[in-house]
Structures are given as C-alpha cells and as structure tokens.
Amino acid sequence: MKQALIQLLCEKSFKYSQKPAFRLVSGRLSRFYVNCKPTTLDPKGMYLAGHLIFDAICDLDIAGVGGLTFGADPLAVATAFVSEMKKQPIKAFSIRKTKKDHGISQWIEGDLAPGDSAVVIDDVATTGGSTIKAIERARSEGLKVTRAVVLVDRQEGGLENIRNHVPDVVAVISREELMTQYQLTADA
Fold first, then answer.
1. CA atoms within 13 A on the CB side of 81
2. Is 152:126 a contact under the CB 8 Å cutoff?
C-alpha cells in the first residue's frame, strides 16, 4: 500500500524543481512542492492513506484521530472509516483554524470529551507549525495527545519540532521516498 500511495502522490501532489521555485507558507522558496489534497481527496488515495495511518496508530488505545482543518480532514475521515472496518473504531475530529464564536465556543468538531486520548495527524510537515498548533488546541480542549502522525515529512526539521510537543511522532512517507519515485518515473 505504501508504494502505491507514493506513486499516487508523485502523480498528483509532488513537484520538484532543480532551482527553488515553490513559495512555502513561511515565505521562503523550495525545490519541493507537496500538496496532498489532490491525493487525499482521491478515492484510491483516501483508501491508501486511511489504511496506512490506521496501521500507524492501531497499537494505541485512543478515542480519536484528527488535526487542523483542512489538510487533516480527509485523512481523519479515511482513518476512522478504516478503523470501523477493522473493528477497532476510532472517531474522527477536526480542529478549526479560528475558534467558533457562536453556540458553544470550541476549537474541535467531533464526538470527543475532555480526557479522551487522541492522535493528531497532518498531511505534510515542513516546520511542523500546523501540527504543533493542532496539538496545542487539542490539549486546550482537554484531549490527551499521545502521538502525532504526518503523511508526508518534507525532512526540513518539522518532525523534530513536533517531538518537542509530543515525543511519539511518526511519518508515513518521507520526501526522500517521493524523490526516489520521482526520479524513477523521470528516468523511465
């Protein structure tokens, strides 16, 4: 499954340039561009990512899986769906970018309660900033964050930064693995 997801990411979500050409959220330019949404919103990509993330968290006794909207949303839903298929149900949740200011003021949407254990997920980590923000917001709502899982690690220090907030961090796919597949495809 992992190799199939790497191939799909290379087809739909990964771009490379020999010179820095892609502007990142930080404002700096990079040679690598990863936008997972075309893959994670694709039926096959959702299937593969859901299974791989479930495999990365199925050893934990957790109530929920989710992260900062919108990058984590399709991954959380896919993982929750797989968890039910595997008879180990884990609820999906979504963390807002801005706090809800009507009804019950909250960061999280989902059926979780304070004290529940959860895994925070993200589609891509560069510096880890959005994953860290999700961890902080989940904890502010009373969730116990036991692990962070990133679908694609750009290998630019993000996982190390996330480890300062949650020691247990897992990346499903690395930039190096994407580059290896990219080069195989380019050479063919």
1. 14
2. no
CA distances from 61 to 19, 52, 183 (A): 45, 17, 39
Spell out the long-range contacts of 178-186 with Cβ–Cβ below 8 A and sequence spacing 24 or more: 178/6, 178/9, 178/10, 178/14, 178/32, 178/34, 178/152, 179/16, 179/32, 181/6, 181/7, 181/9, 181/10, 182/10, 182/14, 182/16, 185/10
* Domains in the chain with CATH codes: 2-187 (3.40.50.2020)
For the segment 38-53, what is each residue's pLDDT rounded down to a tens digit? 999 999 999 999 999 9
One-letter amino acid identity for 9?
L
Residue the block writes with tokens 């990142």? 24
Question: CA dist 38 to 18, 140, 180, Å?
Answer: 23, 31, 20
Please give the structure tokens belonging to residue 187. Answer: 């050479």
DSSP at 84: H
Rounded to whole angstroms, how far apart are CA atoms 71 and 4? Answer: 20
* pTM assigned to the model: 0.94
Listed in order, strand segments (DSSP E) in 99-157 are 108-110, 117-125, 144-153
d(CA 96, CA 73): 10
Over the stretch 164-186, which tens digit does the pLDDT of each residue have? 999 999 999 999 999 999 998 87
The residue assigned the tokens 């299937």 is: 47
